[in-house]
Automatic annotation (TrEMBL):
InterPro entries: RidA, RidA_CS, RutC-like_sf, YjgF/YER057c/UK114. This is RidA family protein. One of its GO terms (molecular function) is deaminase activity. Belongs to the RutC family. SUPFAM superfamilies: YjgF-like. The lineage of its organism: Bacteria, Bacillati, Bacillota, Erysipelotrichia, Erysipelotrichales.
Length: 124
């Protein structure tokens, strides 16, 4: 059985998907961009977008009854791998020392011209 999770505290989906699905004790989030959930616009620059992505993911996790301490895997997509060090520092600050497994890739382009997108899997 699966349960869908959506919250107004994170941006609405820009396509035919939901913010997260819970199944078999895990929460699978859709990728989050650096969109401000109130305005629907991208934050300016990689630092602001990275923080916004993490805040959006935090809101989705909280809505599903989870948090960053229960994250087991993340995938980071970057429009420029040169931003890796900056993103790494910001990303790490949200986990409090208990880091999940992770992959990071440079991609050709992200939706809406985003600079970063992160998806994750967490324990419910």
């Amino acid at each position: 059985m699966k349960k869908v999770h959506n919250t107004d505290k994170a941006p609405k989906a820009i396509g035919p998907y939901v913010q997260a699905v819970e199944a078999n004790g895990f929460i699978f989030t859709s990728g989050q961009l650096g969109l401000n959930p109130e305005t629907g616009t991208l934050q300016e620059g990689i630092e602001a977008q990275a923080h916004q992505v993490m805040k959006n993911l935090q809101s989705v996790l909280e809505n599903a009854g989870s948090d960053f301490s229960k994250v087991v895997k993340t995938t980071i997509l970057l429009s420029d791998i040169a931003d890796f060090a900056t993103v790494n520092e910001i990303y790490g600050s949200y986990f409090g020392g208990e880091f999940p497994a992770r992959s990071a890739y440079q991609v050709a382009t992200l939706p809406l011209g985003g600079l970063i997108e992160i998806e994750l899997i967490a324990l419910a």
